[in-house]
């Protein structure tokens, strides 16, 4: 089937394979703020949050991904093109790329990885892609059912994991569970050992197509307690400590030999009122949801937790995303919050049950949020879960009550709305018909200005209905010790973790 002449839109030689390099040496060790989950070893299960990419950037590679200086860098694909009619995207694959087990990467692996993908926005991607054609072993074509301006945003950014490639023959041999136990990828590092809840160890893959990694061994040590992470960094037991906040961040700044290294990315946290569609729930009343919004002192949380380096949020779409709409803020106003509760029939407040969140941000942000809610009469208790378990149950719609959630996944306003606010989205408990209708309309709109207006209208409706209570766009505050010559924090724009791993360096003397 003809889809129109192909017109080259992106060709890049930015990442040509490097000449022979020195053998990798040394070790870099991280104190990681979350318990490493095997589901994050498999790109097919990418959950619409940024956390899995902490590991995917090491063990796997994508056709196209963010790299320093370019948000869509050709990687396993050396170039791509789009047809004049917008119906076909063709990728030219890099030759001589090998997976960790020695299998060559081909178009079969690309097709297989897309068809196998079941993570965030999988249903939307597969509804819009008519088929994947293998043109030859190093050329693959995605044919769309109709022009879709956001194909590359959904496919080729960490909004999803669909463009991250796994070896077809190996996965078919070991199965999905076997793959999570012994993942094989095309990234700069391969798995050496994994002790759940304790430590993940990776070793340099010297045949990585882009360059031979400089550091021999990467160790990700699970250290859930923030003070313990900082203590390990001060003792030299780790080289990088993720997520240091509040008074501990101040202590980090004062400690000789250590560096506070903040990263900023498209990350927003918010409250989701899962019962707002239940007429029997207090949350069904918009005035109650507005009261919760006015109860939260966002700037106070910013100063106390993030040293003022974060941003108060009034939209669940991050301010740095394309098509972001700036809402009028729900200002911190406890008096207004109490008045709204009284108007809704709750002059003495009400028992709101649990606010459920994950352990990292649920503690740092969720605890003061619950305190602010209680101060105006919304009596709630904080319940914290391990991060991977929280997002698993959240995605399966098993959690009830009020959720403290968030996302740092890149993309644009459409990718964020699809995952969190449109019927069928991975984390959507309910929505409103107007939002679904407008989202379908914008997906088919090829005029950028008209599309922006529609996406702005969706965000306006979400704001007016107080569907969420946005809280903050956190800064990710990290500590770096003296042995890390290149720590990688901030090299890739809008990415919180160290990357690219093959560019990191350690002081060996």
Short summary:
Helix content is 30%, strand content 24%. It is of the alpha+beta class.
Fold and architecture overview:
Helix 14 runs antiparallel to helix 15. Helix content is 30%, strand content 24%. The chain has three domains: 21-36 and 196-264 and 476-509, D-Maltodextrin-Binding Protein, domain 2 (3-Layer(aba) Sandwich); 50-176, Dipeptide-binding Protein, domain 1 (Alpha-Beta Complex); 268-473, Dipeptide-binding Protein, domain 3 (Roll), CATH 3.10.105.10. The chain is an alpha+beta fold and 509 residues long. It has 15 helices and 22 strands.
* Helix/sheet category: alpha+beta
> How are the strands ordered across the major sheet?
9-10-11-2-12-20-13
Number of domains: 3
Count of alpha/pi helices: 15
Major sheet characteristics: 7 strands, mixed
Determine and state the CATH class of the largest domain: Alpha Beta
The second-level CATH architecture of the largest domain is: Roll
What's the helix and strand layout?
Layout: E1 6-11, E2 27-32, H1 53-59, E3 64-67, E4 70-74, E5 77-83, E6 88-93, H2 107-116, H3 122-128, E7 129-136, E8 139-144, H4 151-156, H5 168-181, E9 189-195, E10 199-204, E11 217-222, H6 226-234, E12 240-241, H7 246-254, E13 259-263, E14 268-273, H8 286-295, H9 298-306, E15 311-312, H10 334-343, E16 350-358, H11 359-376, E17 378-385, H12 387-395, E18 402-407, H13 413-420, H14 433-443, H15 448-464, E19 468-473, E20 476-480, E21 484-486, E22 505-506
Parallel strand pairs: 2-11, 2-12, 16-17, 16-18
Antiparallel strand pairs: 1-5, 3-4, 5-6, 6-8, 7-8, 9-10, 10-11, 12-20, 13-20, 14-18, 14-19, 15-19, 21-22
Helix pairs in contact: 8-10, 14-15
């Amino acid at each position: 089937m003809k889809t129109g002449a192909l017109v080259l839109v992106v060709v890049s030689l930015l990442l040509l394979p490097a000449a022979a390099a020195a053998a990798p040496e040394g070790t870099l060790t991280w104190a990681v703020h979350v318990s490493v989950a095997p589901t994050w070893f498999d790109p097919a299960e990418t959950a619409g949050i940024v956390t899995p990419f902490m590991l995917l950037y090491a063990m796997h590679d994508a056709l196209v991904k963010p790299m320093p200086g370019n948000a869509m860098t050709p990687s396993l694909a050396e170039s791509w093109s789009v047809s004049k009619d917008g119906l076909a995207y063709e990728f030219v694959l890099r030759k001589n790329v090998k997976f960790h087990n020695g299998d060559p990467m081909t178009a079969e692996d690309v097709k297989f990885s897309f068809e196998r993908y079941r993570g965030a926005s999988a249903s939307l991607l597969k509804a819009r892609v008519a088929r994947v054609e293998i043109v030859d072993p190093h050329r693959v074509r995605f044919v769309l059912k109709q022009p879709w301006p956001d194909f590359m945003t959904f496919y080729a950014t960490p909004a999803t994991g669909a463009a991250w490639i796994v070896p077809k023959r190996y996965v078919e041999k070991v199965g999905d569970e076997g793959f999570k136990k012994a993942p094989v990828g095309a990234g700069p590092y391969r798995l050496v050992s994994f002790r759940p809840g304790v430590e993940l160890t990776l070793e340099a893959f010297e045949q990585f197509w882009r360059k031979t990694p400089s550091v021999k061994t990467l160790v990700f040590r699970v250290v859930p307690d923030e003070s313990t992470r900082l203590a390990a960094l001060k003792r030299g037991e780790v080289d990088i400590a993720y997520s240091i906040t509040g008074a501990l961040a101040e202590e980090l700044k004062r400690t000789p030999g250590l560096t506070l290294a903040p990263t900023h990315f498209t990350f927003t946290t918010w409250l989701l009122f899962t019962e707002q569609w239940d007429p029997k729930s207090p949350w069904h009343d918009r005035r109650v949801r507005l009261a919760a919004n006015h109860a939260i002192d966002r700037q106070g949380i910013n100063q106390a937790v993030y040293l003022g380096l974060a941003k108060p949020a009034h939209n669940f779409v991050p301010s740095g995303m394309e098509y972001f709409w700036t809402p009028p803020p729900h200002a911190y106003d406890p008096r207004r919050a109490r008045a709204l509760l009284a108007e809704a029939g709750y002059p003495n407040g009400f028992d709101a049950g649990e606010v459920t969140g994950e352990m990292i941000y649920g503690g740092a942000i969720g605890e003061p949020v619950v305190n602010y809610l209680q101060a105006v009469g919304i009596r709630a208790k904080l319940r914290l879960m391990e991060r991977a378990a929280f997002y698993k149950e959240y995605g399966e719609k098993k959690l009830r009550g009020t959720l403290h959630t968030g996302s740092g996944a890149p993309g644009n306003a459409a990718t964020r709305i699809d995952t969190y606010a449109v019927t069928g989205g991975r984390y959507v408990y309910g929505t409103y018909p107007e939002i679904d209708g407008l989202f379908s309309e914008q997906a088919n709109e090829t005029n950028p200005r008209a599309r922006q207006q529609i996406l702005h209208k969706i965000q306006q409706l979400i704001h007016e209905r107080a569907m969420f209570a946005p809280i903050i766009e956190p800064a990710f505050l990290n500590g770096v010790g003296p042995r890390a010559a290149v720590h990688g924090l901030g090299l890739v724009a809008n990415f919180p973790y160290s990357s690219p791993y093959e560019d990191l360096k350690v002081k060996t003397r």
